[in-house]
Predict the 3D structure of the following.
Amino acid sequence: MLAPIVALVWEASHGSEGLWGHLATYVLLPAFGQTVILLAGVGAMVTVLGTTMAWLVAAYEFPGRRFLEWALLLPLAMPTYIIAYSYLDLLHPLGPVQEVLRSVLGFDGPRDFRLPDIRSMTGAVLLLGFVLYPYVYLPVRAMFLMQAANLIEAGRMLGCSHRSVFLRLALPLARPGIAAGVSLALMEALNDIGASEFLGVRTLTVSVYTTWVTRSDLSGAAQIALAMLLLVVLLVAIERWARRGQRFAGNAQRASSFVPVRLSRGWAFAALVIGLVPVVIGFGAPAAYLFSEALQRWQAAGIPAQLVVEIRNTVMMAGSATILVLICGAVIAYAGRVFPGPATGVTGRVAALGYAMPGTVIAIGVLIPVAGLDRILDSGSRMAFGVPVGLVLIGSGVALAYAYMVRFLAIGVGSVEAGFARIPRSLDHAARSLGHGVGSSFMKLHLPLSGAPFAAAALLVFVDAMKELPATLLLRPLNFETLATRLYGEAARGTHEDGAMAALAIVLAGIAPVILLARIGRRKPVGTP
């Protein structure tokens, strides 16, 4: 986990003397400004949208509320680059949305009437906001549901209206969930490369990619990536600073659960419509478009043979990463349980660093040590056997699997630790008294009892690896296409329709963890009758 960070710093320090000045003037400042504006806009939007939707389904009872509880999670299945890809076609001047509007309003063509171009900062903020708001919705809804009814009743007895209860009581108590959700959403927005590039927003991530691939300047890309890493550290520090000195405690006694207020017919219909808006924009409309385009391609030419190869490549790489993450996550989590102490605690925190780093940063950090190992292996093979092996680690996909492992190891460690935490320590002591050592206890006790957390971690890592675009673009072997890179290539060429099948396959795979999260979200909190 630390090797890519060390390698990144080392490579950035080897740039030419005039490189920093050029990058700071012509690349870093414009890209940093665009990135800050994008993150500020997305942060504000996901905060308002996610918190509002969470309060809507937690505080009020109306027909369709149970449907919205899980439907509001569906945009998580839509990667940011896919929603940008879809809306570029849907909102094109000659696309279906503007054609219908012109027909209804009586205009003849695009010269008479056209919507503002979605390729803009505003378009990027709106689309990313409608995809990433579930990161705020999920924890904030949980915080609202865990609030005891006696607190809400006390507020109402003191004369607070529904609005005042939300603003002065429920919202301040939900700040930890809001801060955590916004941080995750901003990390995802910073990691995005496809949507930003498609929509004409030159972020730091896009600058890293163009500097490395287009200009063949690895040192310059490393320096921009280092600036991105500092921005990530700044985001985390701001999140911690925003919650400084705050403590949140619940009632030690068993409290009655939060009871939603039943709305009248008119307000109930309005609440349902309001809740459906982000679901339709963030998932429904682009999913319907992808299904329609994929169906047309399938009816016209069947399933392309190339798509089958790309699915195989995607499954192979995502599966390899999943196995690596589960093995390393189990080792780290089990070490923390068996040998608790400062060392294992630090190890667990270091393992979680990768999830906070954008894929482009990880890709450059991974490339440097792996390329060095490739050169050593090639030199050794030449000396020993007289046969060059070339870039065997990069060319075989090992570097990409390593990058995936660094990026998603936090998921494996967190899920496995949560599973182990539910196993009483008394069982460990019983196993030791029966003569079982550390390894035997893991295989015969902890692993069987942690099957569900392992399966959940495997599912989340597999789907996230399928959707990962920046690291895949930069580290994939030559002539190696996954579903994500195929879609990126088609969108870059302007042939959006040809990538519909690949996009639909990614979205369908992404629905699986959404179903898992919805099942978890429906479980009643502790103490609920």
Summary: The first strand starts at residue 60 and ends at 61. Residues 24 and 327 are 41 Å apart (CA to CA). Strands lie at 60-61, 261-262. The radius of gyration is 25 Å.
